[in-house]
Amino acid sequence: MTVNVLxxxxxxxxxxxxxxxxxxxxxxxxGRIIATDLDPLAPALQAADRTYMVPAVSEADYIPSLVAIxxxxxxxxxxxxxxxxxxxxxxxxxAIEATxxxxxxxxxxxxxxxxxxxxxxxxxxRLAIRTPxxxxxxTLDPAQITFPLFVKPRRGSAGKDSFKVNNERELxxxxxxxxxxxxxxxxxGPEVTTDTICSLNGQVSGVLSRxxxxxxxxxxxKGVTIHDPAIQKxxxxxxxxxxxVGPLTIQCIMKAGKPYFTEVNARFxxxxxxxxxxxxxxxxxxxxxxxxxxxxxxxxxxxQVGLLMTRFDDSYFLTKNEYEQxxxxxx
Length: 331
Description:
This protein is α/β, with parallel strands linked by helices and 331 residues long. It has helices spanning 14-27, 62-73, 85-91, 93-97, 108-114, 117-126, 168-177, 229-241, 272-278, 282-291, 320-327; strands at 4-8, 33-37, 50-53, 75-80, 102-103, 134-135, 149-153, 163-165, 181-185, 191-198, 204-216, 219-226, 246-255, 258-265, 308-310.
């Protein structure tokens, strides 16, 4: 059995691709890791077996390019690695899956819902899950608010254009600056990310929470695994409500010892290597399922708690010729 995996917008996700390579080896499974990106200098391309340059996700040629790659490489699983890819892949699932590949992503309806912080907040409220007080600019009642607040884009990613707001003057400034803003009560933290792993048929197989200690450019740089039964219960409820497949990255912020949920990213999170190291080996589980290999999946909450992660930069070096060859790898 051979299972080839395609990662779209591979970017800096070297650790994730390495984790999949270890999973292939552990399972004794044959397969290639294929990665796409816009940028020939995307580091994760160096960790893949096959690489392709593709158009921007917003361009008309993007999906035809992915379809052609899936056909040529006989791709079995397709994983989007950045938020903008998710609704596009979900919308064109039929065309991609006609090649024999499976898009490991939520439905188009769910992708639209979770890409919007306002509708995500509504989802949490319908599920009776705690969420911060949240407003759109035209629903904000000055009598209801207490500073500080937090302003962020409705459809943002990686913490971009997100700001703590301390007074009315700053609120006016950032409401004008942030695209399609939502306003939330400011929560003191800490922030907890939960990697919620669903099987290819939608069963929750792993739930691991990791507290952020340090964040750089929206991605965790230092973290520690924790276990909170209330977080685990809420994440399972969210995954089931979304009929999710594959990975979900669910964010919450603690207030007075209780979690308040803020967003769902329907993809592998940047800190997934910590979850894998702690015992939630999602690459191995998903590859095994795709290949029809039986593996033992530990019970929920049986991972290593208190495991710390600290990350550092690494480098690849390319000659001009190697760079030009990589840049020319279009389908």
